Amino acid sequence: MDIENTLLKQEAWRFIDNTTINPAFDAIQSFATDDTLCRSVGARMVPSTVRGWVHDKTVSLGIQDSKLPDIDKGIAFLQEQGYRVVVRNSGGLAVVLDAGVLNLSMVLPDAERGIAIERGYETMFTLIKDMFVDCKEVIEAKEIVNSYCPGSYDLSIQGLKFAGISQRRMAKGVAVQIYLAIEGNQAERSTLIRDFYTISGKDKQTKYTFPDVKPEVMGTLSDLIKEDITVNGCLVRLFNSLRHYAGRLESGTLTSDELDLFPAYYERLIARNDKVLS
């Protein structure tokens, strides 16, 4: 068994479905949910969990984005375009969330000696490759320069990025998060982030590095594999892959204990967002 696959082979996987767009459940609640899952999965109160989530017209900023010289102008621009702006607590830079972007969070208990960061990335990469094993195109993991939120585990086909991976580690839990641009207008998303960085004054400072976003280096999975793929279709692929790796596959919602834990993490994220965005 490949080392990348060992973390996928769990006695049980639990799936939580937050892919139906609900204005009452925003991205801040999603990130608080993942913190809650890190705590409960890390304490082995519940099985390892995969959560699917979708939010409409939201830009998720990284902590580093808050250091932009004119961040207030950038946020105002995004809001004028009809986007909600949130600051997440995992790694990376600004990304666009909308109805055509599927986010997956894979939450695992940290091993006794710790799960290496690269191993977390490789595990998610393995899952995505398995979900699209019938794809004739080769999916690669490497940094795509001039994409938004560039990183060493950008997923691409023929040099065009369709996904990015980040991680969140806390309370003996590891959350590996990926956004998958399934369908929609990726050029429009890229242009939005490019303009956000220009308006936010990314070239006025030298302490941090922000990408020169070029829409031509990004695409959607539907376009890249030349197949009409939907978020729901990807969930079917996800279930089939998890069934292969899991002794059993459960579907559910947060437990009562997790619901008790959630408010504290949510309030913490609200406070962080208020501090950055006010």
UniProtKB/TrEMBL annotation:
The gene is lipL. Pathway: Protein modification; protein lipoylation via exogenous pathway. SUPFAM superfamilies: Class II aaRS and biotin synthetases. Catalyzes the amidotransfer (transamidation) of the lipoyl moiety from lipoyl-GcvH to the lipoyl domain of the E2 subunit of lipoate-dependent enzymes. Takes part in a pathway for scavenging of lipoic acid. The record marks K161 as: Lowers pKa of active site Cys. It comes from the Bacteria. InterPro entries: aa-tRNA-synth_II/BPL/LPL, BPL_LPL_catalytic, LipL, Octanoyltrans_LipM/LipL. It holds the Pfam family LplA-B_cat. The active site is at C149. Residues 44-229 form the BPL/LPL catalytic domain. This is Lipoyl-[GcvH]:protein N-lipoyltransferase. PANTHER family: OCTANOYL-[GCVH]:PROTEIN N-OCTANOYLTRANSFERASE (PTHR43679:SF2), OCTANOYLTRANSFERASE LIPM-RELATED (PTHR43679). Belongs to the octanoyltransferase LipL family. The reaction proceeds via a thioester-linked acyl-enzyme intermediate. GO terms for molecular function: ligase activity; lipoyl(octanoyl) transferase activity; lipoyltransferase activity. It catalyses: N(6)-[(R)-lipoyl]-L-lysyl-[glycine-cleavage complex H protein] + L-lysyl-[lipoyl-carrier protein] = L-lysyl-[glycine-cleavage complex H protein] + N(6)-[(R)-lipoyl]-L-lysyl-[lipoyl-carrier protein]. It is an enzyme of class 2 (transferase). It comes from Listeria welshimeri. The keyword Amino-acid biosynthesis does not apply. HAMAP family: LipL. Keywords: Acyltransferase, Ligase, Transferase.
